[in-house]
Give the backbone structure.
Amino acid sequence: MKLRSALLAATVLAVPAIALPTLAKAQPITGLYVGAGAGYDYQTNQKLDYAPGGLGGSRAFYKGSVSGSGSIGYGLGNGLRFELEGIYLRAQNKELKPGYIDPKYSFHGYDQKYGGFGNVLYDIDVGLPYFYPYVGAGAGYLWTDIPDGAVTQAGVDRISGKSGSFAYQGIAGFSIPIPPAPGLSLTAEYHYIGTTNKEKFAGSYEGRPSSFTFGQGTNQTVLIGLRYAFNTPSPPPPPPAPVMAPAPAPARTYLVFFDWDHYNLTPRAKEIIAEAADNSTHVQYTQIEVNGYTDTSGTPSYNLGLSIRRAKSVQAQLIADGVPASAISIAGYGETHLLVPTGPGVREPQNRRVEIIIK
């Protein structure tokens, strides 16, 4: 019955490791890793199936003690890991009860279990970069050793020796990556460990050699440790600071003024055009606009034609000063876009102009 229960427990504990790949994303552990941990072990009480002197049928009780493990494994990168684990469990002998004469026997010394497991584990990505739970199951072999255990009733009974058994375990735990050391994680694990065979030990009763048989036992242990994955890549460097495109240079504007009803260039107008042409060679421009305007004297249609003639006059002088004709665009706006607002028929000198705009 106990063997069937043990196999059932192992099966139930192994199911999550097989089914979880379809339920969650996996922590990307790829390649070789090693781990180690230490903690606390609790051994459940065991039935003493056979013992001389009327102790058969009593139960052995234990106090918790230390545990430790070391492992080496390989991650497939999809959450699954396979590992070999060595484990050590220790329990303090407490008492046997009921005893043969007294209600309980004193049970001195300690027993220890050690052996190895082959484990299958699955890491679960729950969407948190600092917390990765995992589950697993394993099968292996454990030896139980009582180096100097003693059942005493007036000092007549002793138990010592070593017994081996096939074993199974279920594992539940979590890891917390340590960011300053890529690949290094803090781990916390719970192991439920059972054996499939009874434990048989040599001993003595009233000075005569004898044997003692314990029923199947279980251990529960909690381990805190470290794990290091060798192939964990370093975090990517921070992205380079964006290169800001230089702000486009502001447009430069030059004003060329004309006498009333004229489009020929004055000496001062030629100086301004020459300055504009020279400055265009010192900046990176995409276009040079030449826009002509008039004041409000004259008819709108006449003023429109006059503004175009003024623009062409400036264009010709820019070309003469070395500006490529292909870089120049001209337009005439007549009496619209007045620099100085006036009513109709007003001769305003500042409105009789051409604007040179270098963009």
